[in-house]
């Protein structure tokens, strides 16, 4: 009989261990640890807000306990994260770990300050509990089956890890975006068919649900300037009729590299490396010319069919190749919109659909399966 699986560590246990005991292999793992702590913070604060308090004294006590748990001088979670994670991050990770830590501490301080006003007093709730009698302690407990990482998240993390390993960092941006960032700054003029109502979900005439992750490129260029090597994973929305390959909400990963002396060869080399890391060393890549308003020249990256290994089959329409993403050299106009001098810098970019990658990787034939929340599908991952 195999040994029983060890239960997963709680965040309270993790924060008391130095990074090297947490199997941290890269900056992505550190970022995830801090993210887990930040999620815990939100979850705990939310449940306190939902519960409320029955008296002023109880509210004060709740807030004090919460403050001590997070900001306590020695055993508070922030102090522990400082001691065990930040101080044990090697020189390679120090800067990033410091950034994650500072962001988290600011978030904690904000929550601690806001909490007293958010917890509302409600009186008379005691009666409900006591009148109902004591709970029957002999009844069996509820078991909650453990979940697993969603295949889309899993694939997104895998893509992130490959690019983090190449020195890229992760950027995010708003899903509710302005027309300027989603279209104009990306050199998509008003006459472009992508701006038609059929594709875009508008909130009002100047606001929309972003149709791609590309607006993050502009935001990142404005924020950081050049040189820049970033990856932007996130949700996108289109006014598409749902079928086996279209969904109104889907995930993209966008990549952008801006530096002096960047050429199409860098783009090809990087994407070839990425495709082989993701799909396996046997994969071959090929670039076909294409058109996008925000890149010039533009291309489509095709990989040798993962199903027939290039022999030709139904999936690749007998061609042996499957197009997997769009890419190209960043259009000078786009660089200019990001505040970067196209005379001095050049860049390349790509955008890929995460669901599509997951479908190819796991041989899934219907994109709808990802979003239906059917346990019979999800528990296979
Ligand atoms: Zn094939």
Notes on the structure:
The protein has 381 residues and is α+β, with helices and mostly antiparallel strands. It folds into 2 domains: 11-131, no CATH class; 151-378, BirA Bifunctional Protein, domain 2, CATH 3.30.930.10. 40% of the residues lie in helices and 18% in strands. The protein has 13 helices and 10 strands. It has helices at residues 11-14, 27-51, 56-71, 77-86, 91-118, 125-131, 151-165, 179-182, 215-224, 264-279, 332-337, 354-362, 375-378; strands at residues 169-170, 176-178, 201-204, 207-209, 228-237, 249-259, 285-292, 295-304, 321-330, 346-353. A 7-stranded mixed beta sheet has the order 1-5-6-10-9-8-7. A hairpin with a 2-residue loop joins strand 7 and strand 8. Helix 2 runs parallel beside helix 5, helix 3 packs antiparallel against helix 5 (91-118) and helix 7 crosses helix 12 (354-362). The chain is globular. The site of zinc ion has 7 residues, from loops.
Task: Summarize the topology.
Blueprint: H1 11-14, H2 27-51, H3 56-71, H4 77-86, H5 91-118, H6 125-131, H7 151-165, E1 169-170, E2 176-178, H8 179-182, E3 201-204, E4 207-209, H9 215-224, E5 228-237, E6 249-259, H10 264-279, E7 285-292, E8 295-304, E9 321-330, H11 332-337, E10 346-353, H12 354-362, H13 375-378
Parallel strand pairs: 1-5
Antiparallel strand pairs: 2-4, 3-4, 5-6, 6-10, 7-8, 8-9, 9-10
Helix pairs in contact: 2-5, 3-5, 4-5, 7-12
The structure holds zinc ion.
Residues 305, 307-308, 312-313, 315-316 line the site of zinc ion.
């Amino acid at each position: 009989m195999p040994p029983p699986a060890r239960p997963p560590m709680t965040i309270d246990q993790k924060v008391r261990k130095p990074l090297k005991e947490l199997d941290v292999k890269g900056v992505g793992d550190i970022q995830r640890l801090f993210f887990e702590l930040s999620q815990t913070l939100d979850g705990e604060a939310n449940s306190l807000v939902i519960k409320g308090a029955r008296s002023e004294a109880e509210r004060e006590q709740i807030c004090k306990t919460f403050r001590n748990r997070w900001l306590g001088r020695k055993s508070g979670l922030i102090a522990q994260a400082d001691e065990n994670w930040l101080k044990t991050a090697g020189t390679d990770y120090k800067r990033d770990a410091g950034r994650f830590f500072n962001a988290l501490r600011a978030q904690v301080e904000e929550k601690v300050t806001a909490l007293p006003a958010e917890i509302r007093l409600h009186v008379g709730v005691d009666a409900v509990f006591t009148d109902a009698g004591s709970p029957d302690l002999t009844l069996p407990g509820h078991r909650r089956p453990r979940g697993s990482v969603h295949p889309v998240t899993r694939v997104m993390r895998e893509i992130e890890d490959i690019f983090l390993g190449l020195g890229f960092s992760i950027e995010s941006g708003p899903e509710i975006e302005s027309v300027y960032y989603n279209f104009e700054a990306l050199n998509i003029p008003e006459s472009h068919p992508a701006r038609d109502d059929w594709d875009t979900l508008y909130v009002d005439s100047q606001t929309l649900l972003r149709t791609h992750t590309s607006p993050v490129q502009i935001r990142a260029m404005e924020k950081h300037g050049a040189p820049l090597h970033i990856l932007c994973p996130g949700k996108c929305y289109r006014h598409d009729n749902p079928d086996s390959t279209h969904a109104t909400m889907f995930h993209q990963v966008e990549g952008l590299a801006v530096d002096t002396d960047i050429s199409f060869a860098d783009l090809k080399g990087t994407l070839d490396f990425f495709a082989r890391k993701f799909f396996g060393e046997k994969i071959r890549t090929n670039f076909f010319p294409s058109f996008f308003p925000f890149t010039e020249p533009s291309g489509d990256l095709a990989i040798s069919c993962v199903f027939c290994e290039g022999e030709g089959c139904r999936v690749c329409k007998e061609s042996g190749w499957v197009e997997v993403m769009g890419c190209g050299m960043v259009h000078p106009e786009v660089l200019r919109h990001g505040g970067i001098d196209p005379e001095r810098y050049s860049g390349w970019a790509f955008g890929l659909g995460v669901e599509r990658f997951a479908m190819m990787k796991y041989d899934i034939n219907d994109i709808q399966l990802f979003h239906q929340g059917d346990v019979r599908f999800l528990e296979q991952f």
